[in-house]
Write a structure and sequence with these properties.
By secondary structure, the protein is α/β, with parallel strands linked by helices. The chain has one domain: 2-Layer Sandwich (STM4215-like), CATH 3.30.2000. Strands 1, 2, 3, 4, 5 and 6 form a 6-stranded mixed beta sheet that branches. A hairpin with a 4-residue loop joins strand 5 and strand 6.
Amino acid sequence: MQIYNVEPMQALVDMTKGLFTEIPIYKESMHEDVNDIPDSYILLRSQITDTTESYGDGKSVVRSADCDIMLVSKGYADDTDDLHNINKRKIREHLKAQGINFDEVNLGYNDSLKSTQHTFSVEVKYV
């Protein structure tokens, strides 16, 4: 178990820093003009929940934050050769190579956003 000495968002940035040359990465939200939205990008969401993990002398010394590394891709991703699934594999392999535990949730296609979403949920323990 790794305990980070940085805020959860910085831990997420550190976890994904090797991917930014291949997949654009945004923190919490994406602020691109509608014509400049990448075909596929990562959205980091920190502290979706944030709870006390352990106490010391009545104070929280370690906190546990549930965070998401969300892959968002334009279009419908039902083919293993499409950009969405290629990037999904890249993220999965990158996290595994670092020994980071994660859960995956396929959020599927969102017709109103015209995008497919897949989330890698990670727990960040920090002081």
